[in-house]
Design a protein that fits this description.
The chain is built from 9 helices and 5 strands. With 235 residues, the protein is an alpha+beta fold.
């Protein structure tokens, strides 16, 4: 098919694409509005070796993943629940916790998600405080030159929270794009069904690749159904 054929199809059936896109976007918007919002709060820990030593620095990078695993334990989760007086079990709390170690910046981000923003902030901040205290206790048993200091860069109470999901704007846009694609499939499917139907001289020229030189005129409505003799005699 040539470009002119695609343009002809879009001019003829483009309204289908618009309708399907609008319906899909409206549906995505409605579903997003019906979903319960989930909020996210995070706090970042800074992990610093006691001295600028290549070996200790690499050890610190390797320990970041271990630190994340330590926070994912039920023991640590229970300490957070007891201190913050949260009404949940350790499995539920760990399901709300997301940890992201970054060895290039010597940081560890603690993120918590919950339908209650205050609960999300409490989990993130309390987990950070419990872990920092745990590392401080560990450092007290080490030589000062071998210690790895862990500190909170910014309190979650200063950073606040944000809505994690649903992202209504993104969902609505995605619904509109999906609607456009579905609409295009529909109109090209309809064109495929009608590709052998001849309705006008343009259809003949497009199908047979020849120029139409003439056409048999259609009979006026008043003579349709009359015999040839009656048609010649006139009204």
């Amino acid at each position: 098919m040539e470009l002119t054929d695609y343009l002809r199809i879009l001019r003829k059936r483009g309204w289908i694409v618009l309708v399907v896109a609008l319906v899909a976007a409206a549906s995505a918007f409605g579903v997003s509005r019906l979903q319960t919002p989930v909020y996210s709060a995070s706090v970042k820990l800074s992990v610093n070796p006691a001295r600028a030593d290549w070996g200790l620095s690499n050890t610190t990078k390797d320990l970041l993943r271990n630190y994340a695993e330590n926070m994912r334990t039920h023991k640590m989760a229970q300490e957070v629940i007891d201190r913050a007086k949260l009404d949940m079990d350790t499995s539920t709390l760990l399901g709300k916790l997301y940890l992201s170690p970054a060895s290039d910046t010597f940081t560890l981000q603690i993120e918590a998600r919950d339908t209650d923003p205050q609960v999300a902030m409490t989990i993130a901040q309390t987990m950070a405080e419990v872990f920092v205290e745990d590392r401080d206790a560990w450092n007290q048993r080490q030589d000062k030159r071998d210690r790895i200091e862990v500190s909170i860069l910014d309190s979650v109470w200063n950073l606040g929270y944000q809505q994690y999901s649903p992202n209504t704007r993104v969902n609505t846009l995605a619904g509109a794009v999906a609607g456009v694609l579905i609409g295009l499939l529909v109109i090209f499917f309809l064109e495929w069904l009608e590709q052998d139907v001849i309705r006008a001289s343009a259809d003949v020229e497009r199908t047979l690749q020849v120029t139409v030189l003439g056409a048999i005129p259609s009979l006026p409505p008043e003579v349709v159904g009359r015999s040839p003799a009656e048609a010649r005699r006139g009204p």
